[in-house]
Amino acid sequence: MEKIDVICIGAALVDMIAKVERFPLDDDEVFVSDLKILSGGAAANTAAACSILGLNVAFIGKLGTDDEFGRKIIKDFEKVSVKTDYIKYSDQHSTGSAYVALNKQNKTRRIFAHSGAANYLSQTDIKEEELITTKLIYLSSLKNLVPFIEAGKIGKQYRIPVVLNPGMLIIEQKLDKIKDLLQYIDILILSKHEYATLFNLKNKKFSEKTYIEISEELKQLGIKVIIITLGKKGALLIYEDDSHISPTIKIEKIVDTTGAGDAFSAGFMYEYLLLKDLTFDNLIKCVKIGNFVAGKCIQKLGARYGIPSREELEQFQKKF
Description:
Elements: E1 4-10, E2 13-20, E3 32-40, H1 42-52, E4 57-60, E5 62-64, H2 68-79, E6 88-90, E7 95-103, E8 109-116, H3 128-131, E9 134-140, H4 146-157, E10 162-165, H5 168-171, H6 175-182, E11 187-191, H7 192-198, H8 208-214, H9 216-220, E12 225-229, E13 235-239, E14 242-246, H10 260-275, H11 280-297, H12 310-317
Parallel strand pairs: 1-4, 1-9, 2-7, 5-6, 9-10, 10-11, 11-12
Antiparallel strand pairs: 2-3, 7-8, 12-13, 13-14
Helix pairs in contact: 1-10, 10-11
C-alpha cells in the first residue's frame, strides 16, 4: 500500500464568505458587496494546502450523505488530489457550513460555524488500518474530542507523530477538559489568541519569557514542540530549552486572513516531512516555511487560493 504523507482529520465545511463595509450592530443590516461559496473547514483547508504543496494527503471527516455541499467538498478535494476514500457519511446530519463576514476596511472577520455532520465523527469512524498508512496525523478544529483522542492513541501506539492545531472550538473547552487529548499530541500549533484564552492571558501583553514559562505545563503532558503564531510578529517556536521567533514574510496586500493558520500548518508539515530529524534548527526551518505559506495565503480571498505551488516553495527554500 502506498504510504500517505499526512492524514488530516476534522471538519470539511462549505464557507459562505460575504464582503462587508462594516459588521452589523444589534437589529442592524449591512450591504454585502460580494459573496463567494467555497469549500472550507480548518482540517480540510490544511489537507488541500498540503496536497497543493506536493504531499500525498488523505482526509478523514464526516459529510452528509449525497447532499449538495458534500458533493462540492468532494469535487474540490479531487481537484487538488486529496484522497477521499476515508471520508465517512451521515444519514442523519447534513454537511456543515460556515458563514464568514469579511470587513473590507480592516480585514477582520466574524465566523458562524454550523459543523453539521462533521461534529458527529465518532470513535468508531477512526480506523486503525487507515491511520497506520500515514507518516503524520493532523488534527484540527472539531468540537467533538472523542475521535481526536482515538486518533492520538493510535498515533502513540504506532509512533506516528500527531499534530494538533486546535482552533477555538477546542480551546474554549478549557485546559482541564482537553488534557485528555493533549497527552497524545507531539506538536501543538495554535494562535496567540488561542494560547491567551487557554491560559487566561487576555489582558496581558505578549512576553516571550512568560509564554516559555507557561508552556512548561504543556511539555509536562508530553508535547514536544509548541508553536504560537503571532500575526504580524511571526511565530514563536518552543522546543526543549530553546525558543525562537521567526518573522513573517513581506506582504504586498492582505486580502483575507481566513485559513492563515491552516496554511501555516501545511507549510510546517511539508518541511517537517522533508527534513525528518527533529532538531531545533530544522524546526526553525519548518516555522519559516509555515510563515511563507501563510503569508502567500492571506494575499488571496479564501483559504486555498493563495497557497503557493511546490516550485514557488522550492524557490523560497533556496534563500536559506
